[in-house]
Design goal:
The protein is α/β, with parallel strands linked by helices. Helices cover 37% and strands 13% of the residues. Strand 2 (66-71), helix 2 and strand 3 form a beta-alpha-beta unit.
């Protein structure tokens, strides 16, 4: 029988190396991104598809001047400034940051970075954007760089493309709902639910406290649909459930997806009022103030919860769709992203390489993790951040690489994701699935 997990402790089960991490989606680096793939035909420096990427320079004594670091995480700006200050003292190289909002970064980063005016060092989302950067020849090959050995090998696979290590995923993210364990314990629940009946029981008991069980940002697709990861992890016929929708092998009208939609429809009755019009800032406030018990996004928002005044202990509460007594294939979700790389058109490639090496040092990676409340993929890191220490055991559980990012076609992904909105706002699971499949077939 599947045993529930304690709210106050999580025990290691086994390494992600023994789970689905080493499957096709890591090698093809599927996932988030912008309209990228269309730009591949545009050509440009290093483009050509079949051309091998240029090798990244080794950091060395030639590094000087200024390095522009281009990324999307504005919430990391202060921590990165502190790391950059120490780097400048050591190397004499100055770091300036160029930061775009994440959605803008996904859609325009490749165009902005191709000329080399910005982004000597830059980042990519796992999946579609990495593929785009590879097709356009933007990222160099880091495979021979000495600092690659500082990383957990199984966690940086999403930075590979056709055998080349184009980037280094820096963040280890857990795309699972966050649970306020104080509220759960007030509701009489001391263990994270391990099956669907227990999950709904938790929802009922939280509702009985007079709080919103789940604050869902239905009007913010980037955050709203993170819940699809744990919702699908034990529902699909295998761990490639969404990749196979894109190939036509699976359909949105298959029983497994209709069943998942039916469960999501049940869950939606525990969302806040006007959830379809709610943005991420509003639900973050509800959760941080203790007015909602769960924030169904992921570990990437822990720092924001703390900044907003949330002082309660946290645990992950993935959506467990398995029946009581049924052993689930996966206990949770992880993702490796914020992929660090060096621009092939960089004006200061040696300085960029030295900056990436600096971030790859375990001491500096720990400082980044502690300061941003983000786990990292660098080996030998010792966290001081209490949240990171408390949640670190999830790195050795049976976790699945976030399946939401198996989609390479963003129109297909939107069709599947929007079927959640449809059932939450009144459509039957069958109707929502049929409409989604029509949209999918238009893309196949």
């Amino acid at each position: 029988m599947n045993s529930p997990r304690s709210l106050r402790s999580t025990l290691p089960v086994r390494s992600p190396r023994a789970t689905a991490v080493g499957r096709r989606s890591l090698l093809t680096a599927v996932g988030v991104g912008g309209a990228g793939a269309v730009l591949a035909a545009c050509g440009g420096p290093g483009s050509g598809g079949s051309d091998e990427p240029a090798a990244a320079p080794e950091p060395g004594g030639e590094a000087s001047g200024t390095v522009n670091f281009y990324h999307w995480r504005s919430e990391d700006k202060t921590v990165l400034e502190e790391l950059a200050s120490a780097f400048t003292e050591q190397s004499g190289v100055t770091i300036e940051q160029t930061i775009d909002p994440s959605e803008q970064y996904q859609s325009t980063a490749a165009q902005k970075a191709r000329g080399g005016d910005i982004g000597d060092a830059l980042t990519a989302f796992r999946g579609t954007q990495l593929d785009q950067f590879a097709d356009l020849g933007i990222f160099t090959d880091l495979g021979d760089a000495s600092y690659v050995g500082n990383y957990e090998e199984n966690l940086i696979s999403p930075g590979r493309h056709e055998g080349a290590q184009l980037g280094l995923p820096y963040q280890l993210i857990f795309n699972m709902p966050l649970l306020n364990t104080e509220l759960a314990e007030q509701a009489g629940v001391s263990e994270v639910p391990g099956d669907w009946d227990a999950y709904l029981d938790l929802m009922d008991k939280l509702k009985g406290l007079g709080v919103t069980p789940i604050a869902w940002p239905g009007n913010d697709p980037a955050n709203a649909f993170q819940i699809i990861n744990s919702m699908a992890m034990n529902a699909g016929p295998d761990d490639q459930m969404f990749a196979k929708i894109e190939t036509g092998e699976n359909k949105a009208t298959d029983d497994w997806w209709i069943d998942a939609l039916a469960k999501f429809q049940e869950l939606s009755s525990y969302f806040q009022d006007n959830f379809s019009g709610s943005g991420v800032d509003g639900v973050l406030s509800l959760f941080s103030q203790g007015e909602a018990a769960m924030l169904p996004t992921g570990s990437y928002q822990i720092g924001q919860v703390r900044e907003a005044g949330g002082e309660f202990p946290l645990e992950f509460a993935p959506m467990m769709t398995n029946a009581a007594g049924e052993e689930p294939a996966f206990e949770g979700i992880f993702n490796s992203t914020f992929i660090l790389g060096i621009n092939s058109a960089a004006q200061n490639p040696e300085g960029a390489a030295a900056w990436i090496e600096h971030l790859s040092d375990p001491v500096n990676a720990a400082a980044y993790g502690d300061g941003t409340s983000q786990h990292v993929t660098v080996k030998g890191v010792e966290y001081q951040n209490e949240d990171l220490k408390a949640l670190a055991p999830w790195a050795s559980k049976r976790t699945l690489l976030a399946p939401r990012f198996q989609f390479l076609n963003l129109d297909i992904r939107s069709a599947i994701e929007n079927s959640l909105i449809a059932v939450a706002t009144g459509s039957t699971p069958e109707q929502a699935a049929e409409e989604a499949q029509k949209l999918v077939e238009e893309q196949l």
